[in-house]
Specification:
The complex is a heterodimer of chains A (about 220) and B (about 250). With about 220 residues, chain A is mainly α. Chain A has 9 helices and no strands. In chain B, strands 6-7-8-3-9-10 form a 6-stranded mixed β-sheet, with helices on both faces. Chain B has a 4-stranded antiparallel β-sheet with strand order 2-1-4-5, with helices on one face. Classes of the chains: A mainly alpha (about 220), B alpha/beta (about 250).
Chain lengths: ~220, ~250
């Protein structure tokens, strides 16, 4: 049988408007989740380097649990499992944002911990010896330097989380991949549509990389 | 006589290691005390106890009228002491994310709530005083080691301390930059600043110190006027240390 596949440009172009409708969801889940994840990361990251072991323990547990289980299982658990516990449904968008938040939060905790620990002890000694309190020393001396070092790994995590949202097609959020699946169900143009979907992810992640690189360069220039 | 620092029977351990053994030491207002000794003898640890960067296990310590209690006790006096005691480190420890000017302004604004304009004019004046008035807007990494250390001195002076601690301030410097830092310290001593200086610069010690203390394995084994300690050391430990460092 002579089989020749032809990339159908028209089909690809036709799918764009429908696929674009998924992008707001992809962005909302990614950045909403990452924002909360960042807050969780700062909280648990700083907790994990607390002097008191009793306070470190919950942080370590959180980090190990959410870093050590697949995000797909986490979102299925939140969407299908949690309603049994709380006695009411959770809408898929909330479940998606929660999964990204909890998952990225665990990784960001480690980024925060690493960033803070990478700052030389002499920096806090200098702050304390000038009479600054521990929290003044931390927030005006340690944190700004640590944050600058955290930008590359944070960017990394943002890109990972953006791609992770594609898994949430399984709970029916109308994000990019879900839109693609729905479109393909009617047109059977899987090759073209997934190709366009991939390009759209690339556009999002590449623009993020670009922004981060600019941020980083600006940070480096001022040290 | 006003003791600015009064250490009585101070003991300090790092785990099993007994690093400071029954230290008795007082520093009077306006006095320049230089502490010498081999590396690992405990001299840096000693001055780091004065502003609470190291905690001690037993003994008594008062600094400028405030009591600093041993490890495990509440340290109510510590905040006051740190406001009154400036410190200069071997590695400068300038804040790399702030300009030279902001390095100096940070503590007065945060700790003393000095208005920004006043903090800025103080910073300018201090930078002039340490001889680098033109570098205010640079970042620490753009300065030479000697300049960075002079900024660090200005930063400590901005809090108008009653006592300055110097922890091997010239040990990380290239030889040609040591002089400029010692000159600033010499000037401070002349103006009557109370200073405790840990250093390997024997020439500086001889010239500037009112009193030299030699520490060996955590103990003060010799103490006296520089000419006595350097020219006529009584303890054989001091003799052998000085013969090694003064030979070249």
């Amino acid at each position: 049988m002579d089989f020749q596949f032809q990339f159908d440009w028209q089909a690809a172009i036709d799918s764009i408007p429908f696929l674009l409708k998924g992008i707001p969801y992809t962005l909302l889940i990614s950045f909403g989740g990452l924002l909360i994840g960042f807050a969780l990361g700062i909280f648990f990251g700083l907790l994990s380097i607390n002097k008191r072991r009793l306070l470190r323990w919950p942080a370590t547990t959180y980090i190990e649990v959410f870093r050590g289980t697949p995000i797909l299982v986490q979102v299925l658990f939140i969407f299908y499992g949690l309603p049994d516990l709380i006695g009411g449904p959770i809408d898929p968008l909330t479940a998606g944002i929660a999964a990204i938040a909890l998952n990225s939060g665990a990784y960001i905790s480690e980024v925060v911990r690493g960033g803070v620990q990478s700052i030389d002890r002499g920096q806090s000694e200098a702050g304390l010896s000038l009479g600054l309190s521990r929290s003044q020393t931390f927030w005006s001396i340690i944190w700004p330097q640590a944050f600058r070092r955290m930008i590359p790994p944070l960017g990394n995590q943002a890109i990972v989380s953006i791609k992770d949202t594609s898994l949430f097609s399984v709970i029916g959020v109308g994000e990019l991949v879900r839109q693609g699946q729905v479109y393909i169900a009617n047109t059977f143009t899987a090759f073209e549509v997934y190709f366009v979907v991939a390009i759209m992810y690339l556009c999002i992640t590449l623009s993020l990389s670009l922004i981060l690189r600019t941020l980083e360069r600006r940070g480096v220039a001022s040290t | 006589m006003t003791h600015i620092v009064n250490m009585q029977g101070l003991n300090k351990y790092f785990g099993q290691l007994h690093v400071l053994k029954d230290i008795n030491l007082t520093v009077e207002q306006g006095e320049v005390v230089v502490i010498i000794g081999a590396s690992g003898s405990g001299k840096s640890t000693l001055i780091r106890c004065v502003n609470g960067l190291e905690e001690y296990e037993s003994g008594q310590l008062t600094v400028d009228g405030e009591t600093l209690l041993p490890r495990g006790e509440s340290q109510k006096g510590l905040a006051t002491i740190r406001k009154e005691v400036g410190m200069v480190f071997q590695q400068f420890n300038l804040f790399p994310h702030l300009t030279v000017q902001n390095n100096i302004m940070l503590a007065p604004m945060k700790v003393k709530e000095t208005p920004e304009s006043e903090a800025a004019s103080n910073a300018t004046r201090l930078l002039e005083r340490v001889g680098i008035g033109s570098q205010a807007d640079k970042y620490p990494s753009q300065l030479s080691g000697g300049q960075q250390q002079r900024v660090a001195i200005a930063r400590a002076l901005a809090m108008e301390p009653r006592l300055m601690l110097f922890d091997e301030p010239t040990s990380a410097l290239d030889p040609e930059m040591i002089g400029e830092v010692l000159d600033v310290m010499r000037g401070l001593a002349k103006e009557g600043m109370t200073m405790m200086v840990v250093t390997h610069e024997m020439g500086f010690a001889r010239e500037v110190a009112d009193r030299v203390i030699y520490i060996h394995e955590g103990q003060i084994v010799e103490e006296g006027k520089p000419e006595d300690v350097f020219d006529n050391p009584q303890n054989e430990r001091t003799q052998s240390f000085l013969s090694r460092v003064l030979k070249h």
